[in-house]
Write a structure and sequence with these properties.
By secondary structure, this protein is α+β, with helices and mostly antiparallel strands. The chain is built from 9 helices and 11 strands. A 6-stranded antiparallel sheet has the order 3-2-1-6-5-4, sandwiched between helices. Keywords: Kinase, Serine/threonine-protein kinase, Transferase.
């Protein structure tokens, strides 16, 4: 892949390429980055190629993460500065009131002069004016049922027809979303294969169990009962069982409420680590399109805040086939923590380090 950081920074925003030329360059770069499974290269392609459009001051890209609880955001450098070798990402909470979360939540793009946004986002208007901007464009990256992120572009002036206008930016957003979805889909398949290989190669003492849940209101209760019965059979402590039940119930409830399809639950206990995985088939079933009252960012948001707080590790991937959410509990570490807490309650002093 060509080094996109070598584009002449002085050409940024000076119309060094035509709009159609920029889109063609972007399509080629996205195809190559997607084939390599590299989200960072996708981001660099977007930041570099859209910055070459006439009148562009700044380009930013945000992707949903953590089951929709937050956005992962990166932006290009100011005009005249080179693009870094690796994008510098930061996080935006899904409930922060900023243009990107508004667009990802509602699915509606923003194309407006900064002056019209000053009352709601005065700090943003001041920041972008200092960079020479006067127009803000934010478009959603379309996904299955809800956006998977957003594309932000700050312009010097209202773009002429055919320049960095709504049609071109929405086309760029569609192509970017397709590339991101392709990478995520392949990562999800790789994860499923890795878990299958782990089960196949499990040591004799490893335990596994699975259950298919119907898309019914009773699914969370059935999932809790299944998990409790299996873990008690495996000799897992009551406190771990209760924590796992609570987290599983949150994940299954979200799957039932939003995917409306069967959900597969898989438990695995290997080398002192309990892993719980839930996979729905949202993209294959009758997905309910988000309404104005729904918050696509919160589909797996509030429940996963609890999962994140109670577990040692967790992850979430959404692809063309549905959503996979998993979490892990380290039984040995938690047993040590409980023993230490119990000792402190009895007034025992921890051992001095050797």
């Amino acid at each position: 892949m060509p080094d996109r950081g070598q584009v002449d920074p002085a050409a940024q925003g000076q119309g060094s390429v035509t709009p159609s030329g920029a889109l063609t360059r972007l399509e080629s770069a996205l195809a190559e980055a997607s084939g390599a499974g590299d989200v960072d290269e996708i981001a660099r392609a977007v930041l570099a190629d859209l910055a070459l459009l006439p009148g562009v001051c700044r380009v930013g890209l945000a992707l949903t993460e953590g089951g929709g609880r937050r956005l992962r955001f990166t932006s290009g450098p100011d005009a005249g500065d080179p693009l870094p070798d690796q994008p510098e990402w930061c996080h935006i909470d899904a409930y922060d009131d900023v243009p990107l979360t508004d667009v990802v939540r509602t699915g509606r793009p923003i194309h407006a002069e900064l002056a019209t946004l000053e009352e709601r986002w005065p700090w943003l208007v001041e920041q972008e004016r200092e960079r020479g901007g006067s127009v803000l464009a934010v478009v959603p990256l379309p996904g299955t049922g809800s956006p998977i992120g957003g594309l932000l572009v700050v312009l010097e002036t209202t773009p002429d027809r055919g320049a960095a206008g709504p049609d071109l930016l929405e086309a760029a957003a569609r192509r970017t979303a397709e590339a991101i979805a392709d990478v995520r889909s392949r990562r999800s398949r790789d994860l499923a294969e890795e878990l299958a290989e782990t089960e196949a190669a499990a040591e004799p003492g490893a335990r596994t169990a699975s259950l298919r849940l119907p898309p019914e209101p009773t699914a969370p209760r059935r999932a809790r009962a299944f998990l409790s019965e299996e873990l008690q059979t495996w000799g897992v402590g009551e406190e771990i069982v209760e924590t796992a039940q609570l987290c599983l119930s949150e994940v299954v409830t979200n799957a039932v409420n939003h995917a409306h399809t069967v959900a597969d639950v898989r438990l695995s206990l290997l080398e002192g680590v309990l892993t719980v995985l839930v996979r729905d088939r949202g993209a294959q079933g009758d997905v309910v399109e988000p309404t104005r009252e729904e918050d696509p960012l919160a589909v797996y948001g509030r429940g996963l805040m609890l999962v994140e707080a109670l577990t040692d590790r967790w992850g979430s991937e959404r692809d063309a086939g549905g959503t996979t959410v998993w979490f892990a509990l380290d039984l040995d570490r938690r047993a040590d923590d409980l023993a230490e807490e119990w000792g402190q309650e009895r007034g025992e002093q921890p051992d001095e380090p050797a």
